[in-house]
Amino acid sequence: MRLRCSKPPVCSRSVKRFHASQLYKHLESLKRSTLREQTGGFEQRNLIGSPAEICERIRVYQQAGVTTLSGLLFVANTVPEMQEAIDLFGREVIPNFS
Length: 98
Description:
With 98 residues, the chain is an all-alpha fold. The protein is 52% helix and 0% strand.
């Protein structure tokens, strides 16, 4: 599945933020060991984008029969950024699926 963005500027900012994160750096470091057999980019396997884009991706998973998503990690380099990401997800994504 390819990451498709309905609003490229939002998606571009989201991908840039992901690439600048400690999470991305950690995932990159695992490419030579734990993740060496995975193919495709991290962007295709993660929910990256605006709340609307993330909802769209979750709906694709729903249509494929997925009923549970777990192991959510929020991209942030500071505690306030993490809190903001969690709050935004809780306000604008979760209500669409509860």
